[in-house]
Amino acid sequence: MVEHLTKQTFLDKVFNYEQNKEWKFEGNLPCIIDFYADWCGPCKMVAPILEDLAVEYDGKINIYKINTEAEEELAGAFGIRSIPSMLFVPMNEQPQMSVGALPKDSLIKAIGDVLLKDQNN
């Protein structure tokens, strides 16, 4: 299931940027964070794909959504200027940002290449 994050749940589950200057992932599973807005057409196209992927990859990755209008500080902390923007967060490496609506096959490839690559070896 896709989970909507607030600033507080982001600090708890992803990265506490108020305490850490260097990236330190707080999660127990790799994740995708979808920065979106309710009025954004491409965001609406990606939403059902992310819902499907949340079911397909349940227990392997987490999928989070952040409403950039409600959580302006989080959007600013990551320099979000265009939506949708997705942050791919592997367990032990730096996160990678992707801007724009990605089709399902591209998301699956990114999940395999970025988030689950350690498990594929």
Q: Describe it for me?
A:
The chain has helices at 7-13, 41-56, 72-77, 104-115, 117-120, and strands spanning 3-4, 31-36, 62-67, 85-89, 96-99. The chain is of the alpha/beta class and 121 residues long. The protein has one domain: Glutaredoxin (3-Layer(aba) Sandwich). Strands 1-3-2-4-5 form a 5-stranded mixed beta sheet.
Spell out the key features of this protein.
single chain, 121 residues, alpha/beta, Glutaredoxin, 5-stranded mixed beta sheet, globular
Question: SSE layout and pairings?
Answer:
Layout lengths: L2 E2 L2 H7 L17 E6 L4 H16 L5 E6 L4 H6 L7 E5 L6 E4 L4 H12 L1 H4 L1
Parallel strand pairs: 1-3, 2-3
Antiparallel strand pairs: 2-4, 4-5
Share of helix, binned:
25-40%
**Mean model confidence by pLDDT:** 94
Helical run tally? 5
Q: What's the count of strands?
A: 5
Low-confidence stretches: none
Largest sheet: 5 strands, mixed
The helix-and-strand class reads: alpha/beta
Tell me the span between the first and last alpha carbons.
Answer: 27 Å
CATH architecture: 3-Layer(aba) Sandwich
Reported by name, the CATH topology is Glutaredoxin
Specify the CATH homologous superfamily.
Glutaredoxin
